Amino acid sequence: MTRHLRVDGPNHDDRLDHMAQGVIGQPLNRLEGPLKVAGRATYAAEARPRNLAYGVLVQAAIPAGKVLEIGDAPGALAVIRDKRMVRFAAQGMARKAPKSGPDGIDYMGQAIALVVADTFEAARHAAQNLSVRYAREDVPVNPEDVTPELPPKKQSKTGDLDKAMQEAAFSVDQVWHTPSQMAAAMEPHAAIAEWDGDRVTIRAGLQMLSSNKEQMADALGIRPDKLRLLAPYVGGGFGSKLGINAESVAAAIAAQKLGRPVQVSMTRQQVFDLAHRRSETRQRIRLACDADGTLTGLGHEALVSNLPDDGFSEPVTQATPFTYQAAHRQVVHAIARIHRSCAGSVRAPGEAVGVTVFECAMDELAEAAGIDPVDLRLRNIPEAEPVTGRPFSSHKLTEALQEGAKLFGWSDRRPAKERLEGEWYIGIGMASAVRVNQLVESRARVTLVQDGSAIVETDMTDIGTGTYTILGQLAAEMLGLPADRVEVKLGDTQFPPAAGSGGSFGAASSGNSVFLACEEIRRQIAKAIGCDEGDLTLQDGMARAGNVSKSLSEVVEGTITGEGHLEPGKTEKSHRQATWGSHWAEVAVNRWTGEVRVRRMMGVFACGRVLNEKTARSQCLGGMTFGIGIALTEAMEHDRRDGHAVSRDLAEYHIPCHADVPPLEVHFLQERDAYVGPLQAKGLGELGICGAGAAVLNAIYNACGVRVRELPATPDKIIAGLDP
Amino acid sequence: MQITLNLNGTSHHLDVDPRTTLLDALRHHLGLTGTKKGCDHGQCGSCTVLMDGRRVNACLTLACMVEDRDITTIEGIGTPGHLSPLQQQFLDHDGFQCGYCTPGQICSAAGMLEEIAAGWPSHASESLDGPFELSHAEIAERMSGNLCRCAAYTNIVAAIRQAAQGDNRREDAA
Fold first, then answer.
1. How many Å apart are CA B20 and CA A82, to the nearest integer?
2. How confident is the model over A552-606, as pLDDT tens digits?
3. I need a labelling partner for A421 at 20 to 30 A (CA). Which of A13, A167, A633, B73 fits?
4. Pair type for strands A453-457 and A486-489
5. What integer pLDDT is reported at residue B167 of this predicted model?
């Protein structure tokens, strides 16, 4: 039986608080942890089928045009050129394959062929030596070289911002730039495809199997029921594995043509070219306030880029409409159509760079107005969503700011450039954290076995987020079992289709489906012992109601299976849903070299119910560290002549390393959001990045008095602003 | 070409292309996929293994060059049912998320603790002569060749510190 729920209204039942097992929320170790620390968890390229052949992708060396001719590949089994091969990755949750056809070239680095050989070494050699003749077209590759699109639906205006700026007691009007950024998950994209008659199994690094299945079936021109996708372990995603990409499609085509299994792994450089980049942004922020720091106007104008016709554009201003109040408001969203690699979702699309820049602007306004940055924010938190008047499902920004200020020691802050220790300026900075929240349709199946164990099955993925563990904890809590009695099976399209991992909606969406499946099982147990489900207590393998107490082995004959099906509903529109927090950083800036060291960093977060304190904290650590990268080191530079990514590996694109990250501190605020389903949990994977970089950049200003508006704040830019 | 690898205490005879790296020999030829390929260029540390007890990037090492060496991979450090103290601390401290860089982090940590024991200083060391305090800065500096995009860094340092201190306590008790 399937228990279905559409989230059309609030849920104040706090059911999980009233269960007896007491495992939900506990900081349990990861269920799959022993496999991971022992190197036994098998990722995309780690199945070893017999007779496996190896494929290496060949990339276009021109920014746009056509392939005219491709030479021979001595030593290779085949050079695969097939009109089904895709030119770039599918966007997250797309239902169709991305643009295909390797003869046409849309950007430099696009995959145009696959060379397959018996060994990886032979395939690589042949791929590197393949001769290709092109017809090159001239195309724009720099965002400022074209007239951008201004889609009417993405623009908004309330009141008269120009007038508010003229009449303001204090104002800010500045322009910031953020470069292209990459997810750079540690596992490069890879796939192993194997056909059995007209059926194909593809093992790949993918975040969202249910939509990936539709994309892949469309790409290959087969029925979805002929396709099985496997992604039991995914070595990081951060958006880069939301949609199918060139390697998995090419592996499937090659395996079909050669009649043997084929593995295709991207090189690290190919990952930088072929996975979605976060678009570079140009952001103009205008802020106007009166003498006491009440915002009267705010404007956020963003210019982003993508390939012609692609539906995705970095939603830079996503949180701007509801974070702060102001009567006069304007949002501009402009899209430059250029031929750099495809832009798409990278961890917290929109807020990661949008909130970061906006929070830098707020710091500048606080400075201009002579108001404490925390106070400025506290004074401008709206009662309801501005303009629409929609209520918030829950609002924790005030508490996050006040609690953070106390925990971090904000009252010790001194004016800019006042603290000098040896050759290091010391400063502290802060920023608000905000990220939209959503649910996505998700299904799961739970089976309770007579011996007091349970199995959870869903095609949900665990990309490092802790899904295995939290779904196991949920089932254990709801069914009254020790956590180690629950087995969780994920990452296989033979299981019920789930939301997938993306947009911070994975835990809440798939968690609610497991919750519903367990409610169905509880109902069947209650029926068997003759009580209402609400009166049933399940704990340590025992079922109790009134003065009846039975072990599950007495109640369950064989197995009881329940399915859960969650759909978002009216609360999506009726309430503004978001997660909230605050970021705090202390930095040291070298007065001679401009080097920045983050000495201390703390985040305070509210994300509804915390399902596992340990894995939740780790999500926040990861987000905050991405923030350090955005602030200080990460930039994928493009060649201005042909648009290709210049800094396209881990030696050139600098993600934070051990020595860049001090011991980070994370605090959670207690919250139960009633409008996000019975779990009362919201997303967490992205909140930690939203605004984190601004805390670092604002701390740099507080330390040395330099504002860097061209991110990242590398030493050259800081030196340029320091006194000689 | 025919080669013999001394791996986790066992000899393996392989027929490999001379261009085969130690990393690909492990993953493609021996099916030992615990050692990970993150960049194939010595930039990320995911492929870190121990060679005669010292950490090396398996992606920058040709298989045919290491015939007379003892190689230890993550599979030789512990199994899911019998984790080494270091692996157990990574598990307890959540010193990983996706788990892909983890075998490299653990092999690197094992080698790094030996380097400290042998008296090798680092950029973060107070003096060149030691002894070296296992401070956050000391561990972070020595582990900076192992990237973790999930950014479990805070937890990894805590795990290594705890494992090292646990070892010390055992030595004290002995």
1. 29
2. 999 999 999 999 999 999 999 999 999 999 999 999 999 999 999 999 999 999 9
3. A633
4. parallel
5. 58
- pLDDT tens column, B15-58: 999 999 999 999 999 999 999 999 999 999 999 999 999 999 99
- C-alpha A200/C-alpha A539 separation (Å) is 43
Q: What tens digit of pLDDT does each residue of A446-499 get?
A: 999 999 999 999 999 999 999 999 999 999 999 999 999 999 999 999 999 999
- φ, ψ dihedrals at A449, nearest 5°: -105, 150
Q: Does B37 touch chain A (CB under 8 A)?
A: yes
Does residue B173 have a pLDDT over 60? Answer: no
In DSSP notation, A65-128 reads EEEEEE---TT-SEEE--TTSBSSPPPTT-SS---B-TTEESSTT-EEEEEEESSHHHHHHHHH
Mutation for A interface: B47, B57, B97, most A CBs within 10 A = B97
Contact between B98 and A185 using a beta-carbon 8 Å cutoff = yes
Pinpoint the residues of chain A covered by CATH 3.30.365.10: 2-41+440-568, 49-139+187-276, 383-439+569-724
* CATH 3.30.365.10 for domain A383-439+569-724: yes
Predicted local distance difference test score (pLDDT) of residue B130: 84
Q: Does domain A2-41+440-568 have CATH number 3.30.365.10?
A: yes
A609-637 residue pLDDT tens: 999 999 999 999 999 999 999 999 999 99
A247 touches chain B (CB under 8 A): no
Q: Do B99 and A32 touch (CB under 8 A)?
A: yes
Chain B nearest-CA distance from A87, in A, is: 23
Chain A hits for B74, Cβ within 8 Å: 38-39
A221-265, pLDDT tens digit by residue? 999 999 999 999 999 999 999 999 999 999 999 999 999 999 999
Q: What is the DSSP string of chain B?
A: -EEEEEETTEEEEEE--TT-BHHHIIIIIS--TTS--S-SSSSS-TTEEEETTEEEEGGGSBGGG-TTSEEE-GGGT-BTTB--HHHHHHHHTT--SS-SSHHHHHHHHHHHHHHHHTT---TT-SSSS------HHHHHHHTTTS--TT--HHHHHHHHHHHHHHHHHHHHH-
Cα–Cα distance for residue pair A482/A623, rounded to 1 Å: 31
- The arithmetic mean of pLDDT across residues A193-202, rounded, is 98
Nearest CA in chain A to B100: A235
Cβ neighbours for A617, distance < 8 A, ≥ 6 positions apart: A27, A666, A668, B94
Tell me the CB-side half-sphere exposure of residue A258, using CA atoms within 13 A: 28
Q: In chain B, what are the domains?
A: 2-76 (3.10.20.30), 85-173 (1.10.150.120)
Pick the CATH number of A49-139+187-276 from 3.30.230.10, 3.10.100.10, 3.90.1300.10, 3.30.365.10: 3.30.365.10
Query: Which tens digits make up the pLDDT trace of A355-404?
Result: 999 999 999 999 999 999 999 999 999 999 999 999 999 999 999 999 99
